[in-house]
Amino acid sequence: MTPTLIRGRTLSFNRAPESIDDSAAYAYESDGALLVEDGVIRACGPYATVKAAAPEGVEEIDHRPHLIVPGFIDTHLHFPQMQVMASYAANLLEWLNTYTFPEECRFVETAHAERIAVRFFDEMVRHGTTTATAYCSVHKASADAFFAESLRRGTCMVAGKVMMDRNAPQGLLDTPQMSYDETRAVIADWHGKGRNHVAITPRFAITSTPEQMEVAKSLVREFPDLHVQTHLSENRDEIAFTCELYPEAKDYTDVYARHGLLGRKSLFGHCIHLSEREADAMSETGSVAVFCPTSNLFLGSGLFPLRALTRRDKPVRVSVASDIGGGTSYSMLKTLDEAYKILQLQGERLNPFDSFYMMTRGNAEALSLVDRIGTLEPGTDADLTVLDMAATPAMALRAEVVNSLADELFLLQTMGDDRSIVEAYVAGKPAKSVLAIA
Ligand code: GUN
Ligand code: ZN
Predict the structure, then answer these.
(1) Protein residue whose Cα sits closest to atom 1 of ligand 1
(2) Which of 100, 331, 346, 437 is the most buried (most CB within 10 A)?
(3) Hey, whose CA ends up nearest to atom 9 of ligand 1?
């Protein structure tokens, strides 16, 4: 592939910012550029420097005055729940039983799974999200549809066939043996194909028997490099039911610990109501607590204690996610807008550099994929999102009085959505502007 020079203002983090004034945490170029070739960032820096080192006659794409950041990363969502979003329910368990489980039953139809997969990837790039960690449905064909579409688009995705063998409609149940065989088949068919990563995905303790949890444990032992994803401590009734189902466990986290599911590649959705003991267990194993702000507000699940988890003697690793379809927006900008408000309600702050760190490098670190995504570092994959802080008339008016990078980021996060995404590049190729319905 011939190289391309992509010009604009650029922003990339080299670590978590310690405060709003911590300018050493990131690199910002007011006239920057990236040299991209074969899907990889070859150089990044001031335009003049990158241009001088680029081949003669290199093709240039000029995004000035817009801001180029690493493609957004969403660390927890459910691709079969696109048509569950905006379902009216009092709480998690009612929402799952009334809307979510019946909707996921439709993914037994391969044609349906394939249609929704196309729409899912369209929404991701429309919103500037280039990597997601996704739950498919229980049906292997849903994982096949998801990964096949990812392969076509060239995206870096983490996803898994859901394992669930109780407390759900018949059409959504596998068995311990089926979940083992089918997860193995998904790994054989898709892991490492293109940029696809397969995750071992027991839905949550309520929908897996202890026998199925043992199967998940065996899979983790067999494939220790794979991600693991499940749900933990989202809702008080869910916690109480889990403790009834697993009376021998000390608490909800211990259910997963006993089945060998904690670890650095393990992502636990929600983690709102963890005890100190549970947070210690998460910390000691390097497990990741996934903050899903719009979902937690929508389902009334609670306020994620971000600072209490990260600023303790034994800090817990955290990431941030949309949790579609409990979540109410595909946009990571909107997701961080709601995260900000959740912290406000707890008397805490989330500064705009924190937010942009979290949706890029922070989430890449949580996925142990920072060597490939989440920054603009040379040698990493050229997944990029181009942002316009004046994308709507109201934003343009507000942008007139923006006079710092922090102001710009905060405006984008607070008022932005898919309309602020000028372009998303997947492995160096424009992906948003080529959508059929842009
Ligand atoms: N817990 C188990 N399954 C789900 C799900 O689909 N969404 C949410 N928010 N929580 C869950
Ligand atoms: Zn979820």
Answers:
(1) 231
(2) 331
(3) 326
